[in-house]
């Protein structure tokens, strides 16, 4: 059956600026907001926008992401006709290669897209936190009779150099596009969300692949070339919450945004963000517990003091422990009397009794990935009792007592 | 466990939950914040690697069926086996008869059709984390026809039946509340049958219009079949009435009990609602409470069970209570020893005070 619109999610990126958080998983599989992973947002958006066929292009450390997506059932994307597909690079009879760039990743999967014979293709990236109804964007695309539509959002001028920057005319037609400009001409950024007419995109991808000088990237090559050819490229304005959680600091900040009600609306009954549930018992708060301004989810046991923090499932926080402005991920244990501030504690860490994280000034484990006062403890790391981990440190191996 | 099927008896005749079972059958009553009673027995089946489970039910089963769906949350949406709902055989309910007999008669077709040789027959109103595979293995090893699970209790109660066993755990008698005999092996409502034996017994019950499960299925067959007891020594509580529901809920606040129920490697599974994590605001003061996801808490909560999607506003106080899903406790309201069914709304400043041995029960969708 011919599909009107199918979605392709680019989920192959490493997200190296997330440091140890992406040592073992691709960035879209990074956890967020107590129960979610980043990929839940585009997958939920697809499902609720009525898109029933989604390709997820994976490359870097795909095991956890593949396992998580599974049959697509948590997003109602286990379909007989369509559904969710993970698409890693593959060998052919002649050769095979990694995905060279975002455009090349789609180029290598043209056969997959053709199988559904869609009129339009939606290109998404798997590393942003936002909720968006893509069907409205498609309407806009059709109404403008566009060849391509780029979702766009205003960003702070001083941040603009990190994005693809657009200029549009009064009719929302894109007049210029520059990827990561040194001197941005506006503060209107591309969100990395594109709708293309498939026939046209296919031709562009083939031409781009034949251009040996191309980086095979949507922002750097495909879009500028279409503008050059005076194709009808339009912008679609989005004014909701949208965050690129590319760095340790922005990941921490976007979790804190949730606590401060300055984020996506997780309580919108018409747009519930869907996820694969770990299924644990409700959390238990014991008699010494003091818990304020925080998110807590299933399977946790809390007997300590927690303020302004996001606590993922199955976390234990013992009596006398103090956790402030932190993100504590699945299965971590904060022992008696430990004190943590402005930290991200990854899965299954153990912070020993009376240890501290993010309180003292110390640079033993300092890291370029940790900025803005945030300390990061990698998955499975054990910090022995009474050890002190300084601010803006990143710990990737166990810390034994007596070292610091 | 390939040679074993499950049969869950989802009926009400042993439970008196009043307001809570007005619109639903007992095993669909919400429990422990995010579960329903049926989840415990269903999870036990799955954890025992029983992947063919029949669930026989007789009336008020709408919310039960909504909950079960196709069985996917328990991994029971299968091509081979899986969850099979057995609705009532005939619309006429014989009130003089133990509903369990009627359910077994309805299930005869299912029992005959399955090729497996053993059946775990289970009541649906127990709270426990049990494994049936050990019991089935013991059943086979002993060459038993029927194995009856019991629990050693301190004293006899009014409503239960008890099992008198010899030194080999072979059942010699069933003891009732009025019997003089001293026996505290309480029958908990889990049984293993050789399937053909069960079919024969149920056929007999149908032919001779037998009325009572314990008497006609177990007791009257003690001489004819080899019936053994099997002692379960973990945490188990049967929910018969408001009092036992309240007690079972308060048990959840005990670390040891919660550990046995929920922290075993065998999980209690349920239908996920994809709720948001629970949000605690600036004025939250919560102690000794079990709280499910999707709540917003800005008040005081102590010794209570707070289910999914509940909101406790600033200044509200909830103590010793069970709050079922999607209730709202408005600002400055006070609840003590109260059971609120789903979707109740306690208006600003209202006070409801029950006693732990006599909690106040408020039915679904009520506003106070």
Word description of this protein:
The complex is a heterodimer of chains A (404) and B (368). With 404 residues, chain A is an alpha/beta fold. In chain A, the strands form 6 sheets. In chain A, strands 1, 4, 5, 6, 8, 9, 10, 11 and 12 form a 9-stranded mixed beta sheet that branches. Chain A has a 6-stranded parallel beta sheet with strand order 14-17-20-23-26-29, with no helix packed on it. Chain A is built from 8 helices and 31 strands. The N and C termini of chain A lie far apart (64 Å). In chain A, 19% of the residues lie in helices and 27% in strands. With 368 residues, chain B is of the alpha/beta class. Chain B starts with a strand and ends in a 6-residue tail after the last strand. The mean pLDDT of chain B is 92. Helix content of chain B is 21%, strand content 28%. Chain B has 9 helices and 28 strands. Chains A and B meet through strand 14, strand 15, strand 16 and strand 19 of A and helix 9, strand 14, strand 15, strand 16 and strand 19 of B. Strand 16 of chain A pairs antiparallel with strand 14 of chain B, so a sheet runs across the interface.
Q: What is the makeup of the main sheet of chain B?
A: 7 strands, mixed
Write down the overall mean pLDDT of chain A. Answer: 93
Q: Report the structural category of chain B.
A: alpha/beta
Estimated helix fraction of chain B: 10-25%
List the SSEs and their pairings.
The complex is a heterodimer of chains A (404) and B (368).
Chain A: E1 5-10, E2 31-32, E3 36-37, H1 40-48, E4 53-57, H2 63-69, E5 83-87, H3 102-107, H4 110-116, E6 120-125, E7 128-130, H5 134-143, E8 148-154, E9 164-168, E10 174-179, E11 188-197, H6 198-210, H7 218-228, E12 233-237, E13 242-244, H8 248-259, E14 283-285, E15 290-292, E16 294-296, E17 301-302, E18 305-307, E19 310-311, E20 316-317, E21 322-324, E22 327-328, E23 333-334, E24 339-341, E25 343-345, E26 350-351, E27 356-357, E28 375-377, E29 382-383, E30 388-389, E31 394-395
Parallel strand pairs in A: 1-4, 1-6, 4-5, 8-12, 14-17, 15-18, 16-19, 17-20, 18-21, 19-22, 20-23, 21-24, 22-25, 23-26, 24-27, 25-28, 26-29, 27-30, 28-31
Antiparallel strand pairs in A: 2-3, 6-11, 7-13, 8-11, 9-10, 9-11
Chain B: E1 4-10, E2 30-31, E3 35-36, H1 38-47, E4 52-57, H2 62-68, E5 82-86, H3 99-106, H4 108-113, E6 118-123, E7 126-128, H5 132-141, E8 146-152, E9 162-165, E10 171-175, E11 185-194, H6 195-207, H7 213-218, E12 227-231, E13 236-238, H8 242-251, H9 255-262, E14 278-280, E15 285-287, E16 289-291, E17 296-297, E18 300-302, E19 305-306, E20 311-312, E21 317-319, E22 322-323, E23 328-329, E24 334-336, E25 338-340, E26 345-346, E27 351-353, E28 360-362
Parallel strand pairs in B: 1-4, 1-6, 4-5, 8-12, 14-17, 15-18, 16-19, 17-20, 18-21, 19-22, 20-23, 21-24, 22-25, 23-26, 24-27, 25-28
Antiparallel strand pairs in B: 2-3, 6-11, 7-13, 8-11, 9-10
């Amino acid at each position: 059956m011919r599909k009107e619109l199918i979605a392709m999610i680019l989920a192959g990126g490493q997200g190296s600026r997330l440091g140890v958080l992406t040592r073992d998983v691709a960035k879209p599989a990074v956890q967020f907001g107590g129960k979610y992973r980043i990929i839940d947002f585009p997958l939920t958006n697809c499902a609720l926008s009525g898109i029933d066929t989604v390709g997820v292009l994976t490359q870097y450390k795909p095991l956890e992401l593949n396992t998580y997506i599974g049959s697509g059932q948590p997003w109602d994307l286990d379909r007989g006709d369509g559904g969710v597909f993970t698409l890693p690079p593959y060998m052919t009879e002649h050769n095979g290669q990694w995905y060279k760039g975002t455009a090349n990743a789609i180029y290598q999967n043209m056969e997959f897209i053709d199988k559904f014979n869609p009129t339009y293709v939606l290109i998404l990236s798997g590393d942003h936190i936002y909720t968006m109804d893509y069907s409205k964007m498609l309407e806009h695309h059709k109404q403008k009779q566009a060849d391509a539509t780029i979702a766009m959002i205003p960003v702070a001028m001083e941040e603009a150099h990190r994005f693809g920057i657009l200029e549009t005319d009064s009719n929302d037609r894109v007049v210029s596009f520059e990827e990561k400009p040194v001197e941005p001409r506006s503060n209107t950024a591309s969100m990395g969300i594109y709708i293309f007419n498939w026939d046209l995109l296919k031709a562009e991808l083939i031409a781009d692949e034949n251009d040996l000088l191309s980086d095979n990237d949507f922002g750097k090559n495909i879009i500028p070339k279409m503008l050059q050819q005076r194709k009808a490229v339009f912008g679609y304005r989005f004014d909701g919450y949208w965050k690129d959680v590319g760095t340790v600091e922005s990941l921490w900040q976007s979790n804190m945004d949730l606590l401060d009600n300055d984020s996506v609306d997780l309580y919108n009954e018409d747009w519930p963000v869907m996820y694969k549930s770990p299924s644990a018992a409700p959390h238990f708060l014991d008699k010494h517990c003091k818990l304020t301004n925080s998110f807590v989810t299933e399977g946790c046991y809390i007997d300590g003091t927690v303020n302004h923090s996001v606590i993922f499932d199955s976390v234990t926080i013992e009596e006398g422990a103090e956790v402030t402005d932190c993100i504590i991920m699945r299965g971590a244990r904060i022992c008696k009397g430990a004190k943590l501030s402005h930290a991200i504690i990854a899965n299954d860490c153990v912070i020993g009794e009376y240890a501290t994280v993010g309180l003292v000034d110390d640079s033993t484990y300092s890291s370029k990935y940790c900025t803005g006062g945030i300390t990061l403890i990698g998955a499975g790391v054990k910090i022995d009792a009474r050890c002190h981990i300084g601010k803006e440190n990143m710990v990737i191996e166990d810390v034994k007592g007596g070292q610091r | 466990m390939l040679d074993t099927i499950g049969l869950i008896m989802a009926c009400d005749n042993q439970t008196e939950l009043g307001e809570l079972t007005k619109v639903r059958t007992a095993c669909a009553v919400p429990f422990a914040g995010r579960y329903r009673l049926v989840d415990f027995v269903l999870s036990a089946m799955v954890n025992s690697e029983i992947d063919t489970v029949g669930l026989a039910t007789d009336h008020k089963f709408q919310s039960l069926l909504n909950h079960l769906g196709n069985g996917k949350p328990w991994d029971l949406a299968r091509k081979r086996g899986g969850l099979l709902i057995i609705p009532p055989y005939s619309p006429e309910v014989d009130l003089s008869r133990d509903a369990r007999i009627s359910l077994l008669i309805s299930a005869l077709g299912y029992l005959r059709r399955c090729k497996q040789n053993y059946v775990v027959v289970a009541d649906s109103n127990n709270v426990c984390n049990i494994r049936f595979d050990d019991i089935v293995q013991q059943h086979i090893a002993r060459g038993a026809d029927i194995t009856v699970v019991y629990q050693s209790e301190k004293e006899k109660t009014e409503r239960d039946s008890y099992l008198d066993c010899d030194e080999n755990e072979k059942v010699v008698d069933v003891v009732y509340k009025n019997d003089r005999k001293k026996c505290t092996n309480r029958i908990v409502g889990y049984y293993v049958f050789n399937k053909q034996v069960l079919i024969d017994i149920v056929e007999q019950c149908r032919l001779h219009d037998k009325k009572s499960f314990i008497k006609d299925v177990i007791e009257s067959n003690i001489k004819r079949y080899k019936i053994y007891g099997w002692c379960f020594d973990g945490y188990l509580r049967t929910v018969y009435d408001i009092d036992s529901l309240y007690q079972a809920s308060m048990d959840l606040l005990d670390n040891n009990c919660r550990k046995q129920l929920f922290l075993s490697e065998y999980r209690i599974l349920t239908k996920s609602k994809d709720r948001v994590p629970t949000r605690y605001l600036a004025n939250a003061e919560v102690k000794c409470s079990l709280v499910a996801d999707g709540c917003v808490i800005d008040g005081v909560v102590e010794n209570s069970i707070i289910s999914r999607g509940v909101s406790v506003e600033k200044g509200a106080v909830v103590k010793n209570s069970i709050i079922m899903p999607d209730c709202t406790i408005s600002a400055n309201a006070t609840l003590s020893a109260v059971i609120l069914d789903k979707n109740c709304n306690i208006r600003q400043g209202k006070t409801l005070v029950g006693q732990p041995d006599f909690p106040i029960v408020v039915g679904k969708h009520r506003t106070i």
